[in-house]
Design brief:
Its cofactor is L-ascorbate. This protein is mainly beta. The protein has one domain: Sandwich (Jelly Rolls), CATH 2.60.120.620. It has two helices and twelve strands; from the N terminus they run H-E-E-H-E-E-E-E-E-E-E-E-E-E. Bound molecules: pyridine-2,4-dicarboxylic acid and zinc ion (ZN). Zinc ion binds next to loops.
């Protein structure tokens, strides 16, 4: 990815999330092939080592780079109030279908500065095709 394009993406994320570019970690690109998933987890840290450099993770911007995939939803089990589809199964919570060009912004921390366990999320099993996504994690403090 060109530096200029990367800068434009970082700027757009920063404006949308209202978090300075400097607080962002490097973008991570993920590829999921058939039958692959990312088990539910928190994006915030529980260990001191990571907290010392750049503080806690506040928010995550997840960007979908492909959409020729069946399954592969991003899944928030504690969000919403109904059912949703996750890797071909109907489950409770809220899921987001990967659509190329779309992005999801969510917070791992409440306004009180406490890590929010309801931010638990994962990536559902890919049933067919391939899913590519890009993640920008944003911290409380400078992370350069
Ligand atoms: O690729 C995803 O949908 C996904 C789901 C959960 C990515 C992450 N977490 C992450 O990069 O933290
Ligand atoms: Zn995550």
């Amino acid at each position: 990815m060109s530096t200029l394009l990367n800068q434009a993406i970082e700027k757009r994320i920063s404006v949308y999330a209202q978090i300075p570019i400097e607080n962002g970690e490097l973008i991570h690109v993920l590829r999921y092939q058939k039958n692959q998933f990312y088990k539910p987890h928190f994006d915030y840290f529980s260990d001191i080592f990571n907290l010392k450099r750049g503080g806690q993770r506040i928010a995550t911007m997840l960007m979908y780079l492909t959409d020729n995939v069946e399954g592969g939803e991003t899944y928030f089990p504690m969000a919403g109030s109904g059912d949703c589809s996750c890797g071909g199964k109907i489950v409770q919570g809220l899921s987001v279908k990967p659509t190329k060009g779309n992005a999801v912004l969510f917070w791992s921390m409440g306004l009180d500065g406490q890590s929010d366990p309801n931010s638990v999320h994962g990536s559902c099993e890919v049933l067919s095709g391939e899913k590519w996504s890009a993640t920008k994690w944003m911290r409380q403090a400078l992370h350069t």
